[in-house]
């Protein structure tokens, strides 16, 4: 008997028919002798519809009330799912975030989990029931208020529950078969990866792979939770995201996969005085504007001018506020100008085997060079090489690298739902 | 400074525009220097839509999960209302039933309030905020589960909060101007009643007046809460439902008003053995079938036959299960047959002044007799006379009585929203 946490997203419970289908899958897992905890998101577009209502009554909705509003979405889907499972003759009980013991800090809209005390979930399992838990939500003990975990919150709920309950695996159901060596829409010969370390998965997620949220993977790595990313449309095994123990050697391919990201822009601050502390002041301004910057490159200043150029990438949605914040402090910092480039793409090659294989960078850059692809920025970690190119050649670059590292599978990837995420 | 509880039903918060309008009214009451607690129902048809979803995934939804599902409706309306009030520059905080301390027993779907501990509501008021509380819902302390109060639950929530907080008045907003001497759709000259005792209101509600739920009035009477029934579409004073103290003499009209009810049917059990205990066994069967019976009439048994006929009225929706239950026990009890009549109507004349005015019954029956209206059953209390007639002459009977007791107002009643409730 295993304890399995299963997470289903909004598209898996979009209507009554989908809920019934998911219920059958859950009942099957339960009947096979497993203890099952299910984490569920709000139905389909519910969250967007609720947000529209909030905008209609308030120009700037309070975070506390917005969390109260949005958490009703999971309350609906989890109650319906519990009913549907019971209708199949399997006992099921639904629990809100607070009933499931998801204690968070008080930051409405993007709360962090500080404690998980799933006593009622454990009691439901002990009573032979399937426990359904609302994803995305928790509560703050000090204020007694309902909170939400923000983007990717339901994945994080699932992993956090799996950790607290000592689950054997946390299954994240999605509309594709698992994690692929590259986006199958871009590289039709991309292979499904059977097994990836959470470290590699973090790099892939950070580099634009959308199947799992970084925060959930981080939580899984910190707490040793095994994630199984699999399709809710098939019975195929998906991708296991594992946490090898210290010193444990696992035979694994040098390269895991390639991720690409077209959702970032580049900002270059030109003519920054080459004085100690200037970069720190610059990035404090950027951080205060609420931006998550990714790659940073500083051109070496020449002794002639005493100034340098600093480029960084950030999500498109955060560009405007950063540009405004920088412009407001130009005289203060003393730089010359700001350049904005929204036509960039990022490509990342990830693989734990890079650590011990010296030829990876050379092969990577040679392949791009042979294909005539110009590289504008470079950033590396122990297990990742990232580059920035023009946006319109990103897909070609992904194919070139995929081929250069012999990642092509024997058959074409099967992509469900047409989203290719 | 007064403490005012205001309750708004689903039609008052049916969409964003309605919510904004209600928010303005609440903000106005707050700005006038009052402490304001608002109880709100789910938006418009939300509850029905959620029930449809439940039926789509389950033939017989669990009460616990149904309560979890339905309570999301108030969560949505209360959060939106709080946002809308804040948007007008008035601080507002929303609270679920459990956050507001509405402790109930564990009977899902029709829980009874066992304790109200509105500490957080009181704290919100102390902080100068408007407190918005979800109507219709509470929680059970033993199970930790969410419960709902059933039909009319939001009125009960409002009255219970008013009692626990020691509010000056509990305003129930509706789509008519208050309680009328008769249904203005039937009697266009019906007058709005300025003041009614909770005792009279109970009789009117029990006799079919739909503006207030019996349970809320009972709670108000027990706890000395003054209810003000008024229109959300006008600023007119509505009807005060008061609780005169013991021995307090209030000058009041002999007759308060007339209620009629077409939603009940009559069942007659023919040839019941006139043996002690038979009626008790009969009504135990009826009660076990879940019926709320109202009027009961037993024909005197004649010494010749030793059998009697027993008639009673009950809501149409409960008739079938009672008929089935009686039929199943016919041989056991030893009665001859069961007759079912779904073409009856009930009319009730209510007035506390009846106690000390002896001519009321005579005038009542004379008026009906003069109009050629046949009476099939009679039931009376200290302050009420009820009769059953054919359904198709109920409206005529109401007009005849209304006129006989000089209840006609000087101008026609204004009915908003066309429902005439």
Automatic annotation (TrEMBL), chains A, B:
UniProt xrefs under Pfam families: AA_kinase (PF00696), ACT (PF01842), ACT_9 (PF22468)
GO MF: aspartate kinase activity; ATP binding
ACT domain: residues covered: 267-343, 349-421
Gene3D superfamilies: 3.30.70.260, Acetylglutamate kinase-like
Enzyme class: transferase
CDD domains reported in the protein's UniProt record: AAK_AKii-LysC-BS, ACT_AK-LysC-DapG-like_2, ACT_AKii-LysC-BS-like_1
Biological processes, Gene Ontology terms: diaminopimelate biosynthetic process; homoserine biosynthetic process; lysine biosynthetic process via diaminopimelate; threonine biosynthetic process
Presence of keyword Amino-acid biosynthesis: yes
Protein name: Aspartokinase
Catalytic activity: L-aspartate + ATP = 4-phospho-L-aspartate + ADP
Family to which the UniProt record says this protein belongs: Belongs to the aspartokinase family.
EC number: 2.7.2.4
GO cellular component, one term: cytosol
Reported function: Catalyzes the phosphorylation of the beta-carboxyl group of aspartic acid with ATP to yield 4-phospho-L-aspartate, which is involved in the branched biosynthetic pathway leading to the biosynthesis of amino acids lysine, threonine, isoleucine and methionine.
Binding site for ATP: 7-10, 174-175, 185, 210-211
Protein's pathway: Amino-acid biosynthesis; L-threonine biosynthesis; L-threonine from L-aspartate: step 1/5; Amino-acid biosynthesis; L-methionine biosynthesis via de novo pathway; L-homoserine from L-aspartate: step 1/3; Amino-acid biosynthesis; L-lysine biosynthesis via DAP pathway; (S)-tetrahydrodipicolinate from L-aspartate: step 1/4
Keywords: Amino-acid biosynthesis, ATP-binding, Diaminopimelate biosynthesis, Kinase, Lysine biosynthesis, Nucleotide-binding, Transferase
Keyword match Transferase: yes
Positions with a binding annotation for substrate: 47, 74
């Amino acid at each position: 008997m295993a304890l399995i946490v299963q997470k289903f997203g909004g598209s898996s419970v979009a209507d009554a028919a989908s809920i019934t289908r998911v219920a059958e899958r859950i009942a099957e897992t339960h009947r096979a002798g497993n203890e099952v905890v299910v984490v569920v998101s709000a139905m389909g577009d519910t969250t967007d519809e609720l947000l529209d209502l909030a905008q209609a009554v308030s120009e700037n909705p309070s975070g506390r009330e917005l969390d109260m509003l949005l958490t009703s979405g999971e309350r609906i889907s989890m109650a319906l799912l519990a009913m549907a499972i019971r209708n199949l003759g399997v006992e099921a009980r639904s629990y809100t975030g607070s009933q499931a013991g998801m204690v968070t800090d008080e930051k409405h809209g993007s709360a962090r989990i500080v404690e998980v005390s799933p006593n009622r979930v454990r009691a439901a399992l002990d009573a032979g029931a399937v426990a359904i838990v609302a994803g995305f939500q928790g509560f703050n003990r000090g204020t007694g208020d309902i909170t939400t975990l923000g983007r990717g919150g339901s994945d994080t709920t699932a992993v956090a529950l799996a950790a607290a309950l000592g689950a054997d695996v946390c299954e994240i159901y999605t509309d594709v078969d698992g994690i692929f060596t590259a986006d199958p829409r871009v590289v039709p010969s991309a292979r499904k990866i059977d097994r990836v370390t959470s470290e590699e998965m973090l790099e892939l997620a950070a580099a634009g792979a959308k199947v799992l949220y970084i925060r959930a993977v981080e939580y899984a790595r910190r707490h040793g939770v095994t994630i199984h990313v699999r399709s809710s449309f098939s019975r195929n095994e998906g991708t296991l995201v594992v946490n090898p123990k210290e010193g444990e050697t696992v035979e694994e391919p040098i390269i895991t996969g390639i991720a690409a990201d077209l959702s970032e822009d580049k900002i270059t601050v030109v003519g920054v005085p080459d004085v100690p502390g200037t970069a720190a002041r610059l990035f404090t301004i950027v951080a205060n504007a609420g931006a998550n910057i990714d790659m940073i490159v500083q051109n070496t200043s020449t002794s002639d001018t005493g100034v340098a150029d600093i480029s960084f990438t950030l999500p498109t949605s955060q560009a405007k506020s950063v540009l405004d914040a920088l412009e407001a402090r130009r005289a203060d910092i003393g730089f010359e100008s700001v350049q904005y480039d929204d036509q960039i793409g990022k490509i990342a090659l990830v693989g734990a085997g890079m650590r011990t294989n010296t030829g990876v960078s050379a092969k990577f850059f040679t392949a791009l060079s042979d294909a005539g692809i110009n590289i504008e920025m470079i950033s590396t970690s122990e297990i990742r090489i990232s580059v920035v190119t023009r946006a319109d050649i990103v897909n070609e670059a992904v194919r070139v690298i995929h081929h250069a590292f012999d990642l092509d599978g024997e058959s074409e990837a099967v992509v469900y739902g047409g989203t290719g995420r």
